[in-house]
Each structure stands twice: as C-alpha cells, then as structure tokens.
Amino acid sequence: MATSLFSALFSAVYLSCWRNTTCSAITEAAFPGVWESNIYAPSSRTVSPTSVLSLATGKLVSKYDGTIALAKNGSAVVFDFGLEVGGIVTIKYTASGKGAGALGLAFTEAKKWIGEWSDSSNGGFRGADGALYSNFSSPGAVVYTMPDAKLRGGFRYLTVFLVAQSASVQISDVSLEIGFQPTWSNLRAYQGYFHSNDEVLNAVWYSGAYTLQTNAVPPNTGRKAGPMAASGWSNNGYLGPGDTIIVDGAKRDRAVWPGDMGVAVPSTFVSVGDLESVKNALQVMYDYQNADGSFPEAGPPLLQQGSDTYHMWTMIGTYNYLLYTNDTAFLAKNWPGYLRAMTYIQSKVSSTGGLLQVTGTRDWARWQTSGNMSHAQMILYRTLTTGATLALWAPPTTTNTSSSPNLTTTWLARASSLQAATLKHCFDAPVGAFKDNATSTTLHPQDANSLSILFNLVDPSSPQAQKISSLLLQNWTPLGAASPELPGTISPFISSFEIAAHLEAYQTQRALDLIRRCWGWYLSHPNGTQSTVVEGYLVDGTFAYRWNRGYGNDASYVSHAHGWSAGPTAALTEYVLGLRVTKPAGGEWVFAPQMGDLEHVRGGFVTRLGRFEGSWARDGEGYTATVEAPGGTRGRLVLPVVMQGFMPRVVLDGREVVEGDGLEWFRRSEVGDLVSVEAVEGGRHVVVVS
C-alpha cells in the first residue's frame, strides 16, 4: 500500500488500528460462538477478490489466483470480491509490447452495472462517475494505488480494462485496504450477536450489522459537495469530529442523515456496538445547529437544510444515544442546543388545530411533505415523550439548574394534546387507519401508521392498533411492503418501522414474514451484494428506487449498503429475542420474547455496565428461557402464555412464582395473554413456562 494513504487521509487512531499496533478500540468479539460464521466482515483489513467474472456475460470464469492477462485494446475482466467492500485498491501489473496505454478501474455494487463506467455516486444525474486510470508510457512493472480522494466507499465488483493500441498487461496482484470501521483492527469484533433456527433471519441480522460497519467511516472521507465535474467523484470532504462517524451509505451520500439514524442507531447498538461513530454524528448536528434552533437535514459536506422531520430525528437520536450509553457529559454539553431545538419545532404547532404545521418540507422521499401531515405528528409525539425523559436524565448545568421536572411535565402535556389532535384530525375512523394529513381522504401512508403504533401514539394492545397492523398488510407485494406515499416503491427504511410496529402490537408472525419477504428477497438476489441491505427498490424488483420522483434516470445511483434499511437487526434482538434496555446503559431492562414460528433464539449485547444475554427455546408444550444482566441492574420479564386463557406455571431459578408473589397476568385478547415478573435483579436467571 502506498504511503500516501497514511499521510493526511486518516487520523492517528485510524493509522494505529490499521497497523494492528496500539489501537485502543475493541479488538475481540464479546460473544464468540458458532454464530460468528454468519458475520460478513472479512478477517483482515486487506482483502483480495474471490473470483473472476466475464464482463460480457457476468458469469464466473475462474477463482481468483492473483494473475490474469489483458492482451488487446478493450479487453476487460471483472474481479468479484464476493461481498460489499470499500476502500483503496492497489493493482500490480506488468506492461509489455509497444507504446503507451492505460489500465482502467471501474466500480459497482450491483452486478447489473458492471462495465467500464462505475455506478453513480457523485450525484447520479449531475455527471457520470466514470473510471480511474493507471497510465503507463513504456513496458515494465507498475504498482498503482488509487488516489486518497478517490476512495471508493462501497462496491462488490471491480472492472479492469485495457486502453492501448499495441500493448498488453499481465496483472499479478489486486488488493483492497478496507476503509470503513476505521478504529477497529478486527472487523469481526462484534459486541452483539443473534442466532435462531431460521438461517434467513440470521443472515438478515448480520447483513444489517455489516451494512452499519460499511457506513462507519473516517470523518475526512465524505462525498465532496458542490458543483460536480463532468465525471468522477471525490470522497475527501469533512463529515464531523472524531476518528469515526456513521453516515447514510457506503457508496453515497456519505454524510450524516439523522432520519437514517432512527433505524441505524438501535441496530448498531445491538450488533456492532460502535457508539463512538454515533456520538460524532450527533455532535456534528449540534455543531452546525442554525441560529433559529433548527438542525440541518444532513451534515457536512452536504449541509442540506429545511427538514422538520429530520430536525426531530436529531432530537430522538439524542435520546437513543443516551439510552444506550448514559453519556451525561454529551447531554450536558448539548442540552442548551436541545432546548433551542424544542422551542423551534414547538413554535410550528398550530394554536387552533393543535397539529404541527410542517414548513421544512425535505423528508425521506415521500410525495407529500408539507402542512399537517400525519407522519410528522407521529415524530413530534416521539420527540416530546423522549424529550420528557431526557429532561429527567439531564444533569444540572448553569443553563438547566432546576427545570428538568417542569420540562417533563410540560412536554408530556404537549404530547398528550398533540395525541388528541392527531386522533381527531388525522384518524380515518371508517377505515381504521391514519390519513396522510388532516384533509386527505384516500391515502393511508405506511410511515404514519407504522409510527403510530411504534411510538405508542395509539396503544399497541388496543383494537385500534390491531386494525392498523392488519390494514398495513394491504400494501404487501411478493417482494415487500409498498409505500402508498411513494407509489410503486418498496422502502426498507419505512418497512423497518413497520416490522417494529407489528412486534409492538405482538403480531410477531407478520413481522417475521415481512422480513423474509423483503430483506430475504434482496439478500438472495444474484445481482445484489448478497451481504448488505439496499436503500430501496421498485415493486417490480428493479433497483430504480426514487427515479419516478424526478431524481434522474440513472438507477445505478441507488445505494446497496444503506443503514436506514437495517431495522430487522434491532427488531430481532429487541422484540423476537426480546431483550432491550429501558434506562441508560441498561440500568433497567426488559426481557419479553416473541416466538412466532421460530423454535429457538439466543443473542446478546454489551453496554458500559457489562454483558446482556438471553435465550429461549420451545420445549414440548412450554418453553425455557434464560436471561443474564450485569449486577446492580433491574429487569422485568414479560412472558407469553402457552395455553391462552389459563394462568401458566412459571418457575424462576427453580422456584415457582405465583400471583401476589411477583407474578402479574394481563389479558390481551386480540394477541394472546402475557404474564410478567417484576423487579428481577441482575445476574443469570432460568425461566421455565408451562
């Protein structure tokens, strides 16, 4: 690898991790086991292709053995790395024959676009990415390393082609130095895991985790914004502080997008465990907060403005980060900015109708984005309820000495008023679902209805929520759930909220079926990365997401490693395994397994307090579960009843628990009965339910 890579491009921490010397980052997996075979991350930060494909047919030619000849002008070969990768390529070759020439390098994530032009990353319709060229003027050995600014963030296929009139080349080596997850010397050192009897679900969980790794990048490798050249790309823009930061996609846009983090952060927490990247992504939003209190829609280099929903996602992201880390220093530092942000968004709530009036209309690509759209009401409701909790967690500072209890009361009251107004003006009672806005009569969006359950604007156990969950099925196609608010499109981002909504409503089987239908379809697609989660696609299965919205006509611009689509990773851990934290860093937790058609599940994650791990397995007419949490924490068990209508026998650590002795039975007639055991202390516990 050329020494220029270690000059200005990467930080000192990045450098030490890549050289496996004094890296202070995590170096070992927290939960070693057979499930590590599902990890897509390579075992080395330097990788080589796995096979060679024909450019003409896309079919396998041979396994990669390090050598291949290109004998004439226009001859080409495709190197397949076998999965999504990203970073700096070095190619060694020997030129022979007469005259000068060049070796071209082109990159693509999806097989459909392999060729002498890279798939689009610089803005799609602004100008083609084209290729990189290694020029030679005479026969001899050449070692070519991509320029630092031309780092390719995400690709699976590398097309190498010869441009020469009378020269040939013999390629002797192709290698790639991984550019993502920069502070990790061991890319497989996951701090969480998931394992079940369903291999599709296992693969989906780990594809989400690997996607999030490819989205954690050095903070000086952002996609350069501004006017684009006629071709090419530049990934040398400033993203934010620190040594690593989480962005939206590996290939593009390579910027911080807070809405995307609404899905990416919970899934990062339960899998990779890299919350340093999350912290830096949130911090850059506070660093660039506008004078009026609003946050940008996206961080630098893009710094797009004018999104009320993404403004609120930064606030929700602040809550999520505190929940997972208990980083009170971060909260104290940014609390004044948070208060300004709350004042800004609350000023847009109508004093008459009580609904948020959206004027910052940029959003996730849905059609209608202004006025009193119900989607925004759900997000504001979550902003207020999580804000009320943050106010209790906020440490006293010079700007917040005694206001937290009052803020909690105030924001909960506002949430209640917003809830009533949303139900009054946006709920379509004859249909049983939320309309797109207060005046809409026909469109019932996937996003608002999913979030209404997930964010508990409607009680997930209520008949109302059960009807919404049922009506969401009307959008399903053989390849996933279509979004009525973006016609003809399947959005794994919004579907991530839908699967979580079904699980909140204890419609477990619906969630599992949608994961298999959407994420399982893409993961097995022969033209995809077969290792990551895609930004979106059309209902006919083509990778042309959003092009019916005027974003251009180059479908290769679609990202095939997009963290906003990683929702199943968190959902499978927090709902199906059933283990999640409810107070900062897991000081309090809940274990509430959901089984569906599965036979057994196990998994875990790590916080600063220690390891959390759980499992459950069916056993005849009952099941056995285990849960382990650090000492000094306290949890609650919420256990599904085996025989509906009858109080089960619950044995905890060898002692039967009965009503009045910690066991509570509550009926959920629409979705089955549950029992709970309260105030379970940290430690290892075995539960038998029959």
CATH third-tier fold name of the domain at 3-178: Jelly Rolls
Helix share bin: 25-40%
**Largest sheet data:** 10 strands, antiparallel
| SS field, number of helical segments | 13
Oligomer: single chain
Global Rg: 26 Å
Distance between the termini: 60 Å
Number of strands: 28
**Which CATH architecture of the domain at 3-178 is right?**
Sandwich
Q: Which regions are unreliable across 5 or more consecutive residues at pLDDT < 50? A: 1-24, 398-402
Specify the structural class. Answer: alpha+beta
Q: How much is the average pLDDT?
A: 92
Please tell me what the overall shape is: globular
Name the beta content range. Answer: 15-25%
CATH class of the domain at 3-178: Mainly Beta
Name of the CATH homologous superfamily of the domain at 3-178: Galactose-binding domain-like
In brief, what are we looking at here?
The chain is α+β, with helices and mostly antiparallel strands and 690 residues long. The protein has 13 helices and 28 strands.
Report on this structure.
The termini are far apart. Strands 1, 2, 3, 4, 5, 6, 7, 8, 9 and 10 form a 10-stranded antiparallel beta sheet that branches. Strands 11, 20, 21, 22, 23, 24, 25, 26, 27 and 28 form a 10-stranded mixed beta sheet that branches. This protein has a two-stranded antiparallel sheet with strand order 12-13. It contains 13 helices and 28 strands. Helix 3 (258-270) packs parallel to helix 5, helix 7 (374-393) runs antiparallel to helix 8 (404-426) and helix 9 (446-454) runs antiparallel to helix 10 (463-472). Helices cover 27% and strands 24% of the residues. The chain is of the alpha+beta class. The longest helix has 23 residues, at 404-426. Among the domains are: 3-178, Galactose-binding domain-like (Jelly Rolls, Sandwich); 578-689, Maltose phosphorylase, domain 3, CATH 2.60.420.10.
